[in-house]
Amino acid sequence: MAQDNITDDATRAGLEDLVLANRILAENQVLDGFGHVSLRSPARADRYYLSRSLAPGIVTLEDLVEFDLDSNPVAAEKRKLYLERFIHGEIYRRRPDVQAIVHSHSATVVPFTVSSVPLKPIYHMAGFLADGAPVFDIAEKFGHTDMLVTCHEHGAALAESLGEAASSLMRGHGFVAVGSTLPIAVYRAIYTQQNAALQETATNLGGEIRYLDPEEGRLADRSIQTVMQRPWGLWTARAKNPKA
Ligand SMILES: [Zn+2]
User: Fold this and answer.
1) CB–CB of 181/146 below 8 Å?
2) Helices (H), ranges, the chain
3) Structural domain count of the chain
4) Residue 240 falls within a domain, yes or no?
5) Residue 53 Cα to ligand 1 middle (Å)
6) What confidence tens digit (pLDDT) does each residue in 196-224 have?
7) H/E stretch holding 39
8) Does residue 210 lie within any of the structural domains?
9) What are 1-59's pLDDT values in tens digits?
10) Is residue 227 part of a domain?
11) How far apart are CA 78 and CA 87, in angstroms?
12) pTM here?
């Protein structure tokens, strides 16, 4: 139980937020029985926290496990772990700017992982998609697999595909969203899904779609990041008290 050894306030607060992030993403149907969210350790850049293998909607502090960047648990751990934890370790290794990662199998987003129609920013809330979302095709390097990111090599290939982007699609699987804070990663995961739904709606209208220009997207992303505490405050309040 990772929190037994936590003495610094930043880490304790981070872990409490990570529990809430699990609930928030489940509530927003970005995560269901599957998918996960992680936080780079506030105390050590070469470690991260992720739940043991558990549905995100029921994760508590006791379920969080501390991992090194090889995605091995730091302390002895007998509980089952997520098979796809290598997504997190390898992205943290490649992207020092990333402090939190969400991995989702959102049914709203998956069609864009297999279609030749690219996911593009429909509105300002998805400005982080300004430069598009790369599509990671696990078959390109690894041939026929079970489609899961279950080893260092898979994770490193995904991280390479992500590059400097905020979100990467995964063919026939789902997507990852990253952020420089936990609220930003959660926000990007929720709004990757929202943008996919809106893009499908706009496409069904039948006319030509005018997406955000890359510069509009970058400017919008910068503005939204300055007000991240507003949605985060709402989401965490609801996660703490679902009846409110
Ligand atoms: Zn997955």
Assistant:
1) no
2) 9-27, 86-94, 110-114, 139-142, 152-162, 182-205, 214-225, 229-240
3) 1
4) no
5) 12
6) 999 999 999 999 999 999 999 999 999 99
7) strand 36-40
8) yes
9) 555 566 689 999 999 999 999 999 999 999 999 999 999 999 999 999 999 999 999 99
10) yes
11) 21
12) 0.95
pLDDT digits (tens, 9 = 90+) for 55-82: 999 999 999 999 999 999 999 999 999 9
d(CA 174, CA 119): 13
Instruction: Please identify which of the residues 62, 66, 77, 84 carries the catalytic annotation.
Output: 84
- To which H or E segment does residue 167 belong? strand 167-170
Q: What are the CA-CA distances from residue 68 to residues 50, 85, 99, 214, 221 (Å)? A: 11, 11, 14, 35, 31
Query: How far apart, in whole angstroms, are the C-alpha atoms of residue 172 and residue 147?
Result: 8
Cα 82 to middle of ligand 1, angstroms = 10
Please report, for the domain that includes residue 187, its CATH number: 3.40.225.10
How many whole angstroms from 86 Cα to the centroid of ligand 1?
11
pLDDT tens track for 172-193: 999 999 999 999 999 999 999 9
| Residue 243: inside a domain | no
Residue with tokens 């996960």: 36
- 84 assigned to active site: yes
Neighbours of 171 (CB within 10 A): 16
Residue 69: both structure tokens together: 């960047």
**Residue-range definition of the domain harbouring residue 154:** 2-235
